[in-house]
Structure formats: structure tokens, C-alpha cells
Amino acid sequence: MNIYPKRWQALAYLTAGAFLSPLDYFIINMALSSIQKAFNASDYQLQMVVAIYGLTYAALVVFGGRLGDLYGRKKIFTLGLYLFLFSSLACAFSPNITFLIISRMFQGVGASFLAPQVLASIRVLFNSGEQPKAVSIFSSVFGLASVAGQLLGGFLLNLHWASFSWETVFLVNVPVTLLCIIGIHFTMDNNREEKRQKTDVTGALLLIISLLIFICPIIFGRKYHWAWWIFAILLTGILLLILFYNYEIQSMRKNKPVLIDPTLLQNQPFVLCLLIIFFYNFTSGLFICYPYYLQQFLNRNPVDTGLAIIPYGLAFFIGPLLISRIKRSSHMMIYMGLGLLISGFSMASVFIYLQVKPSIGMDISLFLAGLGHGIIMPVMMREAIGLISREKAGQASGLISISIQIGSVTGGTIIGTVFFSTIEFLGFPKAFALAVLMVAIVQIVGVFINKKLLKHSKLY
């Protein structure tokens, strides 16, 4: 008998809280036009509204996972909910664009405390037979968030409730966080490491600074026409990441506390899993290019734009719920997910190239791609977290979250840059078709990595 009788109830609140993190990544895109009008904001300031959330999230998520290991996942998850609650209220009632950007930064801090506690808690609360189902439920929220973010954003902006406009995309977080704070209090124990250690503050600062320096030039490179100093900053970020890794090794040798156990990054199968996760999150490029294409080229309104992404998001939601019924090995499921992503995005590229306007063929293509995304995500999470011992689950889930975030930021920037840079001489349809095709091509890298992962698993 499992010693955590309320584990499924706890998972519901954990999942609902973690749902807020991707939701606020998608929903803000629908409100940017209204925010720009409200504050007379520049394009750069709007970019910061989006970017600062993802930057803070990616930089702090491992630290958030480590805090959960040390001080208890229930405590840190609840702290994340409170941070998310008050920062969402601050966003909604921002008097100016600068205040909104700062509030979004604190939202990112809250989000970084939420997601890693879920995977780590699944590793602890559920036995090995229950973990696949639990991970699938958690993974499905990302697909649901992609749909809800687009649809809910468009609906709320058209609602004009109590004279609010863009503010509603932040106020919608309030009831969810309050429900989760109450629910998690009564359903979850404060599981943590048996032997509490001190926090590696120096390592945390090194990791945060190196990730910020690495991600910032990727995001803002196009704005400054990829000047030489952009690449210099990017290289500095990589060098700082190497410095961080060496610092952690030296700390471990001296029996000092570490933020990330260096042996995690010496675990080749785990690192290969992280790489596959990184590359399949290049799919974020679709959510940047498709709304822009629909609104700027086809003059669609926010609600219609949100409806257009439903086939992808619906399949993304269904995929994780289906995989527990498919009796295949993890490696075959990874091949299946990548195959659907490659075929779905390739078909979508062809349909846009030939027909310009979205068609039933485009919807089917996006459904296939979304299904591939929904299949591969929980399999990769389960495969990666299953390679790591229970006491290091928080650190491992933090690294998985970093792979997701950096993959999304890098993929969105590269795919977006290709799209925006080729519109002028290719035209909207061909530029969009090329961008979508690039998403498919990148997934081929994942196929070769999975092949290597399969070979490695046969050795042990």
C-alpha cells in the first residue's frame, strides 16, 4: 500500500498550479497589442514583457528544484503559488510598462518554484507502476495550456469585464492560485531530502548569471542585427556555464553543498534525454509565427487566431492521455512522437506553400504534429527522471525544465528570425512555410540522438 493515500488529489493541485507556468507564456501573446495601446509601449518594451518571464523562469528553475529538495516540495510549491498570486495582481494593476516588466519578472520567479516540484513529487509520491500515468497527466497540461492560452486570451480580451481589457489575462490566475494553496495544504506532505544540507548560493548565482547571459543575446540578437558583440556575450554565457560546472565539481570534492550534482551531467543517457527535450521544444516557433501570420497577413481577430491553433493544442492534450494505453518501449514511443512531429510540420509547410490560407489539410497536419508533441513529452520526462535517484529528483526535474525553457527560447528565436527575415523577399506564405519546415527538420536531430540513447541502453 502506498504511504501517500492522498497522492492523486495532491497531483490534481500540483498539476493545476504548474498549469499556470505555460499558460502565462501563451496567454500574454494575445494581449500584447492591448498592452502596447494602454502604455504606448515600444516594440522593445513589449519584447521585454514576454522575455523577462521566460528568462527568470529558466535561470531559477534548478534553484527552485533544489530548494524543494532541501526545504520540502510542499513548502516551496506553496511559496511559488503565493509569489505567482501577488505578482499576477501586480501585473494586472501596473501603472506603467516598467512596473509591468518588473512584475512579470517576479511571475517568472514564482513559476520557477512551481514546475520542478511536480516532477520531483511524482518521483516520490507514486510507485514505479503509477508514475507513467501521473507523468502523462502532468504533461497533458502543457497541451491544454497552449489551447487555453490562445482561446482564453482572445475571449478575455473581447469580454471587457468591468472595464478591464488586457488586465484580465493576469487576473484569471488569482482564483486558480487560491484554490491550489488551499488544496495542497490538505492533500500533500512536505517531502524532502532526509539529510538537509546548506544551499549552494555561489553556484546558484553562477548558474543564474550564466543562463541570463546565454539566453539574452539569443532573444535580442535580431533587434541588434546580430552584431559581433551579441556572439561575444553568447560565448561569455557558455564559458560561465563551464565555470559553473567546474565549480560544482570542486565543491563536491571538498564536501561542500552543490546546486546540481555534477554526476547528473556525467550520466550520458540523462544528458541525451535533455538534448532530445531541448530540440523538440523548437516547436515553440509555431506559436510565434502562426498568430503573426494570421493577424498581420490574413487579418484574423484574436478569437479566430486562437481557434486556429486548436488542432495542435487538442492533440497535444490527448497525446499524453493515450500513451499509457500503447504498449511499446520508450524508445519506440520517442520515434513515434518525433515521426509525427516531422510529418505533421512537413505537411503543414506544404499546405501553406500551396494554399496560403489555413485549410482542413493544415488542421490535420497540426493535429498530427500536436499528437507527436503530446506523445514524446511525457515519455521523455519519465525516461529522464527514471534515470535519477529519488534524492536528486528535484535537481533532475530542474534540469529538465531548463531544457524545455532554453529549447523554447532558442527555437522560438531561430524559427522566428527565419520567418521575419524572409518575409520581405519571399512573402508571408513562403516565409511561414519555410519556418514551419525548419521545425520539422530540427526534429531529425532528435531521431539520431534517440538512436544513440537506444544503443547506450542496450549496453546496460
TrEMBL record:
Pfam families, sorted: MFS_1
For this UniProt entry, which segments traverse the membrane?
12-32, 44-64, 76-102, 108-126, 138-157, 169-188, 200-220, 226-249, 270-293, 305-323, 335-354, 360-379, 399-420, 432-450
Q: Major facilitator superfamily (MFS) profile domain location, by residue?
A: 10-458
Q: Where in the cell is it found?
A: Membrane
Membrane topology per record: Multi-pass membrane protein
Write down the Gene3D superfamilies for this protein, in alphabetical order.
Multidrug resistance protein D
Keywords, comma-separated and alphabetical: Membrane, Transmembrane, Transmembrane helix
Tell whether Transmembrane helix is among the UniProt keywords. Answer: yes
- Note the coiled coil stretches, chain numbering: none
PANTHER family for this protein: ACTINORHODIN TRANSPORTER-RELATED, MAJOR FACILITATOR SUPERFAMILY MULTIDRUG TRANSPORTER MFSC
Name of the featured protein: MFS family permease
Native organism is: Chryseobacterium lathyri
